[in-house]
Here is the input.
Amino acid sequence: MNLNVFHDKALKIPINYAGNIINQLDKQYKKYFDFLETNKNHELFKEVWKEIRTIRNISKVIIKSIEYFYHGKKNEGYRGVKHIFDKYQHHAAYLLKPVTGPLFRIRISSNYSLDICDLLHIPFEKRYLISNQRYSISGIPCLYLGSSMYVCWEEMARPNFNDIHCICLVPKETISILDFSKTPLDYIKDFDLRNRPSENGIPPEEIKYAISYFIFFPLIISCCLIPQYRNSTFFPEYIIPQYLMEYLIHSDIDGVSYTSVRKNSENSDSRLCANYAFPSKTPKKKGIDRKLMEKFYTTTPYSYYCSFLETMHFKSTPSRRDNQGWRLYLTSNTGAAHYEFTEFHLFESFMIEKYRRDKYYLNRQTWKKALEGVNK
Here is the structure.
């Protein structure tokens, strides 16, 4: 398949913008509609074009949901997003995927060591610390993970490596997520490598996944707007993602994966730039959501400093996952780095080796401490 068409500006995410969010989405959606019409004879987009009425309807609902929010009708706005999933659930189903590990979570501290409880989600008795974020509703605990050490580092505003403490988590059971983590180009590249088009075109089952992705692309766009003002109290860019999170809390879907808007370059491999958000669905008075945390195996926390002390073994550890050739751009004016030769990868290899050695699972004493709540 010719991939040149997927470099079009109409398909670029995340999106920088200025001005009114509704006006921006109107412009972005029009650009997307024009792109689909221009490419309606393309082997894939000719099938997507058949669903243009559905795509337009989803776009209208998103705009209307934001307007409801601005008019103080939050429930109406939420019902709009829920309507999208209820009416087009057959397409939404193609966007679900199981979580594959390893995933990472970090915390910044100048201490040499941290307790496992320090790296779990914010405990229920400290709800007052939970503010509005892109996929965070005030007061609702949520477990945030990253697909790589790099994306965790970016999300924490590039902290000093020596202050990083990390745990590595691997799914213990099937965990279902809504996958918004890939750009259109990365999605099609992955699709194209896994299933080469036959003489008769794209395999029918695979084209269903692609069509569903592009039908829901207006929703993905609305969740990938880069905030105009980082130090604001209110972020209009978070309205739709928070409605989406509210929907997930009341559904059978465990969480969502999404591309980081903090990544430095759109050219970095999407597999390095995925965030995961798993909301708590079983509220308690104190402690953590045991039902959520029991879905994962986890290591004990390790600091970058500790990994550095084991540097001789650490740097001789071979790659523990297939990330050869993954590209990373740390600045917009430098070339690509091979991820397997970065400190991020070395620290990941260290953590994965620790996981494989001890496969530490939260023991009874740790659970008791976490469930009862840790007051520090």
